[in-house]
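Bump. Still looking for Stage II sporulation protein M structure tokens.
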Amino acid sequence: MREVYFIKQNKEKWLGIEQVIQGKIKKNPDDLSSLYINLVNDLSFAQTYYPKSNTTVYLNHLSSQIFQKIYKTKRVEENRFLYFFKTEVPLLVYQYRRYLGYAFLFFTLFTLIGLLSAIYDKNFANIILGEDYVNQTIENIKAGNAVGVYQSGSTWGSTIGIIFNNIGVGAKLYIYGIFGGVGTLYALLSNSVMLGSFQYFFYDYGALQDSARGIWLHGVFEIFAMVVEAMCGLILGASILFPRTLSRFNSFKNGFKDSFKIFLSTVPFTICAGIIEGYVTRHALKMPLFLNLIIIFGSLVVIGFYYFVYPSIVNKKINNQINDAIL
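Sorry for the wait, here they are.
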């Protein structure tokens, strides 16, 4: 059977299952089980004849969702907040993992553009970072305090301002995705070019090591979260540009719902980054180097595991539960 005909034949049924999952249509447990068995049969057929198709990915995700709907007793017993971060978000990240790859690819490319621009144009950092910031930082470097800019203001006042500013940047990266993802790429370009030129600026003045000891204390969470937020914007844009079997509006609704949940998952990391920047970064050069490294690499392990490794673990666990239920 051709894939197009297979989709056409089952499209209404799958859309009905989506309505059940979203709670718009109520079904008793027996009906839910029948829908689940029917859907698993469609998934098995798709895996056999269209193994690399988006249809197979879609049906696998739909099967996971309805499985959770049927076996929701554990979910009810579990704290809803914990469930969101332990299961719901990782499954979504796994489903859209290629967009995380795209976001990191563009981030790397744009950062290199900023780095090369700063190398070949000595005034580039002044244009991107601003004359006042550059001049102040040069004075700090000469005084042996490369991270002096982070020592101004009160700790709690700085922390609150930083957190709101970073959440605002992340929101732009996400919401601008509504322009077909182009707005997200533009926002990511602006921030990544700034990062590349920023790092070369410190290298050019011989303060890269000191700056890294301070900047990356909070920068790991902040920058990684920024890339994930860009991922959310790309998902939002793709839901508009590529609706697949759904209407464009329904595709957008699903894309917004899924991407917003992933976006929310970045907020705790953004808050942690703000707290570290407000309270810890100002003491970066006074801290033992090993403590700087523990915080930097510890942060990288935590956020890297959550978005790169843990989603695969959760997806595998759910698939094993599905297979056990079938057997």
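Residues 73-77 have pLDDT under 50 and may be disordered.

Edit: fixed formatting.
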